[in-house]
Please model this.
Amino acid sequence: MKLTIGHLYPDLLNLYGDRGNIQCFIKRLQWRGIDVDIVSCPSGSRIDFERFDIVLLGGGSDREQELVCQYLKKVRKDFKDYVEEDGVVLAVCGGYQLLGNYYKTSSKTIEGLGILDIYTEWSKKRLVQNIILKNPFFLNPIVGFENHGGRTYIGNYTPFGKVLFGLGNTGKSGYEGVTYKNIIGTYLHGPLLPKNPEICDYLLQKALTRKYGGNIRLTALPDSLEHTANTYIVKRFARSF
Ligand code: GLN
Model:
């Protein structure tokens, strides 16, 4: 078995260790004897979504998002087809914003992919801090770090999690991120997956099922260090939980 992971625009969308998410995918597949190929797709390269089982779109500054926008326009249709065919996507912060219709900054409007009918508007006070979420599907709270000027309005989509501590999509809604089919869009950097191995395995399982059918089950890994780290963060910031 083998999964192929497309890392989109790592030269522009690469904030706060987002590429650690790729490392986490690689290690958790290797530990189970599953092969993995990473296809790095820097800006300007040709992107063939048909090869991919997982796509990672990382975070970026407003300036980098504006630069990436011109490349995204060229792949919009292929990316959307991939999503509708249940392709797995992890989109973090700037990448999450770009899945939507637009990101309006203080000075311009950056066009998004329009894969999700959501939008983002910049506001002066940045939302910067540790963040903890709860999603009833996952056993452990989801921990991370957020740093964004944009406020994302997700309408009727299902959020990634309820905010236990931190600010989330708008700082007011009480929710963070978005889910749709096999997409997770989130503001959580840190990077997300090493801090939350359950989320990593969830995405890997989705990709394996899409590629090889429902009989493939990931074996459990011990994860005791990961659980200790998760519990420490949760106790530190969201004691009442
Ligand atoms: N530039 C975007 C914002 O400030 C996204 C930042 C990020 O990816 N951390 O909202």
User: Anything to note?
Assistant: The helical segments are 20-30, 62-84, 94-98, 192-195, 197-212, 224-237. The first strand starts at residue 2 and ends at 8. The pocket of glutamine is lined by residues 15, 59-62, 65, 93-94, 97, 147-150 (CB under 6 Å). The chain has one domain: 2-240.
